[in-house]
Amino acid sequence: MKRALGAVAVLLLLLSACGSGGHEEAPARHPGVRSDFDGDGYGDLVVGDTTATVHGKYAAGYAAVLRGSAHGPRIRKPQVVTQDDLGFGKAGEGGAFGSAGTTVTADLDGDGRADLVTQAGRRTLFVVWGSDKGLSGAAAARLTGSAPLAGDVNGDGHTDLVVGVGEVDDNAVRILLGPFSREGTPRRTVSLDLTPPSGSRYAVSVPAALGDVTGDGKDDLLVSWSILADYAPVARATVLYRGSADGNLVEGPRLPDGFYGSSLRTADVNHDGYDDVVAGLPCEMLGDEMVPEGGSRLSVLYGGTLKTSRITENTAGLPVGGPFMPCTFGAAPAVGDADGDGYADVVFSVRPRTGSAEVVLLRGSAEGLTTEGARAVPGDFGVLLDTTGDKAAELVTDDLGRIRVWRGGSRLLAFTASGLGLGPGISGGGRGFRPVG
Ligand SMILES: [Ca+2]
Ligand SMILES: [Ca+2]
Ligand SMILES: [Ca+2]
Ligand SMILES: [Ca+2]
Q: Measured in angstroms, how far is the CA atom of residue 116 from the centroid of ligand 2?
């Protein structure tokens, strides 16, 4: 459970990677489409398995890209990328290339195509550059850092990265301001100290998400002030560092008491121009796992007003009936616009006491996140990605290595790793097979 929660905690990183939106330069490309590596206007689905053996190295991991089309992700001939393909040395055991928790997609060089940024090992990041043929290991760069977040913190239209510097208690990040050269060199680098206030009960600051919560056109960094339990950070409060034109983020308001989570995501749920923050808090760890005070929950903080609301097991209108397994409600939140109405929607998972886990989709609205029109499908967790080019995101769910793609309420396709034809160098894994984003 602890491992799973850790994965959930970092899963949030990847979906805040919407990039800057960019500028419309060449009409053939669609910079606003997330994870569109070949620039054809269809989001391309990344799947991976950090437990897979690659060229004999256990858990070296891979990322496979299923290019989008009018009919959804193409499962024939996926583009498979491993660390071994990149020209920076072979992967070691446990390198976990392509981990969902430490992968983001964003256009770093400003060519209108998304690029893949993924961690392998403790503090190495690889950038795999998009091209009109999609992703391949032939064009890549190596950076130093961990747990990347992508956004535009200085508001210049170029995607920036916020990366960890190493250990969990370093309480510092580096801000790599874009655009990046093909060698991976940012235009400028800024270091930011995130040490929690002296005398406070918080031991570590965990960078958790980027989003423009203040509405000034610069993405803000959301940081979880955390205690340590068994050396693992446990979020207890959220503080916002305001984006700024020179890249020197400024510590801003602490968000209201009780607003924190093991996963944070940002998206504009009420479509008012301010990014909103979604926090999943299924469980807390204090030596043991326990239901958090006030119950497992999914909270939303609305940008601008900083007002909050909560969805709990007792919220009326949920599409899944309880009672639920403890510590499962609100797990693995992800965001995207599932119906293309401009209001970002939210998915999270929950496990009823009887039956299998479900992924719940709640819709955004002018009044905020609502259970009106909510639905649920089977799965341990889900991501939202528009692979069909119609501005409405498909829901991609995982169920112990079986991935399903849902469009509207109906299932578009289903597949497992063994059905993809990943090539002779990749074996094992399977149950760790999951959508990355
Ligand atoms: Ca595409
Ligand atoms: Ca690019
Ligand atoms: Ca920027
Ligand atoms: Ca908003």
A: 9
Query: According to the model, what pLDDT value does residue 431 have?
Result: 82
Token duo for residue 53 = 């053996």
Give me ligand 4 centre to Cα 219, in Å. 13
pLDDT at 184: 97
- DSSP SS3 for 3: helix
Q: What are phi and psi of 82, to 5 degrees?
A: -125, 165
Residue 149 Cα to ligand 3 midpoint, Å, equals 12
Ligand positioned closest to the Cα atom of 178:
3
Q: How far is the CA of 271 from the centre of ligand 4 (A)?
A: 5
pLDDT score, position 15:
36
CA distances from 389 to 63, 71, 149, 263, 340 (A): 22, 9, 25, 28, 11
What phi, psi does 259 have (nearest 5°)? -95, 100
Ranges under pLDDT 70 in the chain: 1-32
Global model pTM greater than 0.90: yes
Nearest ligand for residue 277 CA: 4
Pick the ligand that lies closest to the CA of residue 20.
3
Q: What is the pLDDT of residue 286?
A: 81
- pLDDT tens, position by position, 296-343: 999 999 999 999 999 999 999 999 999 999 999 999 999 999 999 999
CA distance 171 to 208: 12
CA dihedral 94, 95, 100, 101 (to 10 degrees): 90
The ligand minimizing its distance to the Cα of 190 is: 3
Residues 263 and 149: their CA atoms lie apart, in Å, by 13
Distance 277 CA to ligand 4 centre (A): 9
Among all bound ligands, the one having the nearest atom to the CA of 275 is: 4
Give the per-residue pLDDT at 50: 95
Distance 390 CA to ligand 2 centre (A): 22
Contact 48, 63 (CB under 8 A): yes
Bridge partners (DSSP) of residue 12 are none
